[in-house]
Specification:
It is a single chain. By secondary structure, the chain is an alpha/beta fold. 40% of the residues lie in helices and 19% in strands. A 7-stranded mixed β-sheet has the order 8-7-6-9-12-17-18, with helices on both faces. It folds into 2 domains: 128 residues, translation initiation factor eif-2b, domain 1 (Four Helix Bundle (Hemerythrin (Met), subunit A)), CATH 1.20.120; 228 residues, Translation initiation factor eif-2b, domain 2 (Rossmann fold, 3-Layer(aba) Sandwich). GO terms for molecular function: S-methyl-5-thioribose-1-phosphate isomerase activity. Pathway: Amino-acid biosynthesis; L-methionine biosynthesis via salvage pathway; L-methionine from S-methyl-5-thio-alpha-D-ribose 1-phosphate: step 1/6. This is Methylthioribose-1-phosphate isomerase. Its EC number is 5.3.1.23.
């Protein structure tokens, strides 16, 4: 995707051939700050602090973190330490574990002398695969938007509501939930996106709005609690969100607040679709509510807000009464019964074990 006409991926190897570059998403939308990662510890910090976030992206960045660790020490002990350290950074998104397991499997039995080159090649393969996967997700989601557009008066926009950020900043390129929207916009489908602010970190207001604006997609930021009202008044045609983990039965873990959007969509007869790559499916988990670990983040994310003042300064202020504690669960689980369907790189399916296994028969057993 592009920022001010310049193409970017959200992670890449620098011109020196070994260090890794990322966009510091905690600085967006106020500043485009490109960070240079030189070791596994810095990579782990970038993931934990959400300088990079989004389930597919943290998997790709962690893969490069393994490569950086082996560049310093190519021993098996170093490989195991890096995988363990990076794996502890974020508990909910399954892509992180998937990428680290893939790196370990590729590298563990290689001679130490061959590991560094193989690690960088495997990390690049993971990144390239994610970009192509997200492009295909967009292709399979695009017909949903075309079909709605065909039923509307000529020129009337398809109104899509999305929650959090599931665009190219959350992946290596294209995005998951936003990929169909970008492709629809690019082929001339009239489109308007309702962007949930997504408290407490405001990834919708800061990141999704930033992405859509840079690409020229018409959009409007709304408070998180406005979605139900918009649905009641027929101002939402479809909801498309991303996900950090999908169980084999089709339950979906996504940013906190997603479950409430699914309930509102069901009550108003609005299709609720979830876009995901293969790496987000957790075949070992059946019941999302009971089994998916939900990350609890610092209360300061709820009590404090960061933004730009009228005179251009970036400031953090407290918005909660002094002395009041804050809880901050980062994700919730939407049961499969509330999900219209899943959009994957292999096509669309019901949010069910049968639906998923129909697209991924190799996962049977």
């Amino acid at each position: 995707m592009k920022i001010d006409g310049k193409p970017y991926r959200s992670v890449w190897v620098d011109e020196d051939g070994w260090s890794v570059r990322i966009i510091d998403q905690t600085k967006l939308p106020w500043e485009l700050d490109i960070l240079r990662l030189t070791d596994a510890e810095a990579t782990a910090h970038a993931i934990r602090s959400m300088q990079v976030r989004g389930a597919p992206l943290i998997g790709a960045v962690a893969a490069y973190g393994v490569a950086l660790a082996l560049r310093a020490d190519a021993s098996t002990a170093s490989l195991d330490r890096a995988v363990a350290m990076l794996g502890e950074t974020r508990p909910t998104a399954i892509n992180l574990r998937w990428a680290l397991d893939r790196m370990r499997a590729r590298l563990h039995n290689l001679p130490a002398a061959d590991r560094v080159a193989a690690a960088y090649a495997e990390a690049l393969a993971i990144a390239d695969n994610d970009a192509e996967t997200c492009r295909r997700i967009g292709q399979h989601g695009l017909p949903l938007l075309r079909e709605i557009a065909a039923r509307k008066p000529a020129g009337a926009p398809v109104n899509v509501l999305t929650h959090c950020n599931a665009g190219w900043l959350a992946t290596v390129d294209y995005g998951t939930a936003l990929s169909p929207m970008y492709q629809a916009h690019d082929e001339g489908v009239p489109l308007h996106v309702w962007v949930d602010e997504t408290r407490p970190r405001n990834q919708g207001a800061a990141l999704t709005a930033f992405e859509l604006g840079k690409h020229g997609v018409p959009h409007t930021v709304v408070a998180d609690n406005a979605g139900g009202h918009l649905m009641q008044h027929a101002e939402v045609d479809i909801v498309i969100v991303g996900t950090d983990r999908v169980t084999r039965h089709g339950d979906v873990a996504n940013k906190i607040g997603t479950y409430l959007k699914a309930l509102a969509a069901r009550d108003n007869g609005i299709p609720f679709w979830v876009a995901l790559p293969h790496s987000t499916i957790d075949w070992q988990v059946a019941d999302g509510v009971a089994e998916i670990p939900i990350e609890e983040r610092a209360g300061a994310e709820v009590t404090d807000l960061t933004g730009r003042t009228a005179d251009g300064r970036i400031e953090t202020i407290r918005v909660v009464a002094e002395g009041s504690p804050a809880a901050n669960p980062a994700f919730d689980v939407t049961p499969a019964r509330l999900v219209t369907g899943l959009i994957t790189e292999r096509g669309r399916c019901d949010a069910s074990e049968a639906g998923l296994r129909g697209l991924y028969p190799e996962a049977s057993g």
